[in-house]
Amino acid sequence: MRYVIPWLGLGGLLLAAGCTNTRLGFIGRTDNPPPPVSGQTPTVAALVKYMDDNAQHVRSLRCDDVDLGVSHGIVTLANLPTTLACQQPRNFRMSAKLAGNDEVDLGSNDQEFWFWIRKMDPHQFFCPYQVLDEKRPVRLPFPFQPSWVMETLGMGSYGPPERYQLVVEGNREPTRYKLIEHTQGPQGNKVRKVIVFNARDQSRSPGSPQITDFLLLDDATGKELCSARILEVYREGPGVVVPKRLQLHWPEEKITLTLRLSRPVINAQLPGPLFVRRPLAGQPSINLATGRPEGQPSGLQRVGMR
């Protein structure tokens, strides 16, 4: 299990398209709408509107050239050719190959999310979203919910403002603004989600992010459960910002992942079958909500992850 833990970290940290394709490059446009940072402390509503406005411009994202670096403690694993596709509100697919063979398949749609890591287990694991929506505790192999993936990519649903409190760091010249939300993790534990903004206007710096960090903390202790740091962004046209380079960290397992998206395409019409789970031939799919193979009635033997 320790050998494959980095792929579990990868799976969790990463989970109404328009008809016009936009292929992004490193473009230094300055015609973005005014950011929420304008010399005075912004309101919570202004910060949330900034995020929601961007999400309205980025309804889908596809990248067939993702450079993925994985480090586990002092060990750096070889990069894998990776593809990524996501579409609001819950469509997500990421896959990776090694020497031409499928190694990782992670996906999500309106009904469920799933993951399969070949070196971890021959089984495909899935979980209905209804279980999480009803806030029923689910034993996931990672400490966060899949919707966090979309939020990190700038494609989440961030409102309403009443969900958050605003914390300003710095005195005369604030350095950071933090939106803090108290919520529940998939295991039923209380967690704190923190979105960090640079207090300076970054809209005229082509690669500099205005939103720098997404943190998930244990609410009782303040311990970091996982985080995503946006290192560099693409800017294209008014209000379109997507990550170019980001770093994901899972402290408990000493995992750090660095992703660089090259030539992403936004607002392409993505095919529906791309986000449909396909069970593996000869292997049962395991429902994480019940711990049993798909379609197995109650009372039969449970199958779990090794």
Quick structural overview:
The chain is mainly beta and 306 residues long. Helix content is 11%, strand content 40%. The protein is built from four helices and 17 strands.
3D structure, described in words:
This protein has one domain (5-293): outer membrane lipoprotein receptor (LolB), chain A, CATH 2.50.20.10. The protein has helices spanning 5-13, 44-57, 129-133, 147-152, and strands at residues 22-23, 60-72, 75-87, 91-98, 101-108, 112-117, 124-128, 165-169, 176-184, 190-198, 211-218, 224-235, 241-250, 255-261, 265-266, 285-287, 292-293. It has a 17-stranded mixed sheet that branches. Strand 12 and strand 13 form a beta hairpin. By secondary structure, it is mainly beta.
Question: What layout of secondary structure does this protein have?
Answer:
Elements: H1 5-13, E1 22-23, H2 44-57, E2 60-72, E3 75-87, E4 91-98, E5 101-108, E6 112-117, E7 124-128, H3 129-133, H4 147-152, E8 165-169, E9 176-184, E10 190-198, E11 211-218, E12 224-235, E13 241-250, E14 255-261, E15 265-266, E16 285-287, E17 292-293
Parallel strand pairs: 7-16
Antiparallel strand pairs: 1-15, 2-3, 2-14, 2-15, 3-4, 4-5, 5-6, 6-7, 8-9, 9-10, 10-11, 11-12, 12-13, 13-14, 16-17
- Give a short account of the largest sheet: 17 strands, mixed
- CATH homology-level superfamily: Lipoprotein localisation LolA/LolB/LppX
The global form is globular
Helix content: 10-25%
CATH fold label: outer membrane lipoprotein receptor (LolB), chain A
Instruction: Work out the oligomeric state of the chains in this entry.
Output: single chain
Q: Using the CA coordinates, give the radius of gyration.
A: 19 Å
* CATH second-level architecture: Clam
Q: What are the low-pLDDT stretches, counting only 5+ consecutive residues below 50?
A: 1-33, 298-306
Structural class determined from secondary elements? mainly beta
Give the strand content: 35-45%
Query: What is the number of independent domains?
Result: 1
Query: Count the strands?
Result: 17
